[in-house]
Amino acid sequence: MYAISVVGPDSTALVERLVGRLAVEGRVATVSNLPLAPAPGFEESVTFGGEGADVTYGLGDGWTALGHERTLGEVVDDCAPDYDYLLADGFPDARLPTVVAGDAPATTDRVVATVDAETADLDDLAAAVDATEPHETLASLVAAVKRSPDADRSGAIATFTGRVRAKDAADDARTELLEFEMYEGVAEERMATISRELEERDGVLEVRMHHRSGVIPDGEDIVFVVVLAGHRGEAFRTVSDGIDRLKAEVPIFKKEVTTDEEFWVHDRS
Amino acid sequence: MRWKLFANLAETAGEREVDVDVEAGATFRDALDALFETHPELREEVTDEEGNLRDHIRVLRNSQNPFVADAGYETTLEAGDELAMFPPVSGG
Fold this sequence. Notes:
The structure holds two protein chains of two kinds. By secondary structure, chain A is an alpha/beta fold.
């Protein structure tokens, strides 16, 4: 799923136009920033928040939900398996590729386009959206392999998730973040080649890999490998070989920042 | 011809992309020398006493290793080639 933040004085007008254009390509989710406005009528009539429910869904012709404590990041992760695009309207602090609509100073270094909401060329904008790094999660990769044309022959999915480890031993200086630098283009090409080669194994139906880049704080996920296979044996073997090959062959570089120091990981291993 | 540098090599050079004045028909060694002319401090870091690349330094030409796919230092370069140099990979 491509996840885009739209900001600026005319963000809502641009989202409205862009939704129409992107819906031609796939399923679109939108998220609005409504700090003071729960769905009119819904809260009063059917929620049980006063009785202690943390979230309430109303199902019918469509659905409505109301709850507490939901961040944009959580909603983006939740939408990733099921939608092709997500447009977040009016979140200036979003950590997403950003389109600025109207005359506004950029609040992020991730601006992919600055446009006039009424006159922007939607084909150009859709192309700019498709050129961003897709937002993948473990769930979105699992959903993607389940859509395989060979899914009927699959009895197993094995997954690997690499995460930022804060400590390797009790007395370690705490790792606060890792910063990954990727050889853009070549890294993706290598991962695709490894995946295709692993898919040539008997009983291996689909292999997907995704590695995040930039700053990743401790506790967050870094990399996913997902294998759809006929049986568990080849699924386990392939997911293990997949992450080993990714770590050995893909041009990605890791800087570690601990409470004491920062260093390139290849200098220490 | 353009070199792309990564991780500590980009930090040593102070830039990630270095355009060098090397024409099509020149060799990979020529492009290396041109890079070191612009950034002598890189030569120190990535070559041994004989002027060859240290074992742990990786290079690519259009995403292929010229020491595997082509003729190594004697590889003939073409217009628009993208050259890359980086330390051991450390993803995941």
